[in-house]
Amino acid sequence: VSQRTFSIIKPDAVKNGHAAAILAEISKAGFKLVAIKKIVLTKEQAAGFYYVHAARPFFGELVDFMSSGVIYPMVLEKENAIADLRTLMGATDPAKADEGTIRKMFATSIGENAIHGSDAEETAAFEIPYFFAGYELK
Ligand code: CMP
Fold it and tell me: Where does ATP bind (predicted)?
């Protein structure tokens, strides 16, 4: 069955000129691009998106980074989209990411790691409407 997941091309990847190459990898892997937009988050919006990490030591850094420049939030669809996107992304730390993964190819560090992907169905159900209205998801 087809499934939707939420992803963000992060500020490091946009600044480094990798956004189009990342979209090409996602497309090659068989994902349909349901929705995409270009935005710069406020710190409040970034903190709200990452609220589950609020108690982590890196939270301030994460919020500053995610509000530091243009991002491309998007909704992707395919069979097994959530797990397959996580595989395509590679490990959070690019130093530990497998060859051929987006983070291996395009990430800078554990914090500036090029791409976000929902880690579970419940997460996607929070993250998709955080950025997109129903009329943008047809
Ligand atoms: P993401 O999948 O978007 O969700 C949480 C983010 O926190 C994660 O990607 C990383 O970019 C970031 N993160 C995780 N661990 C660390 C860390 N040790 N230092 C800085 N950022 C981190």
Answer: 10, 58, 86, 92, 103, 113
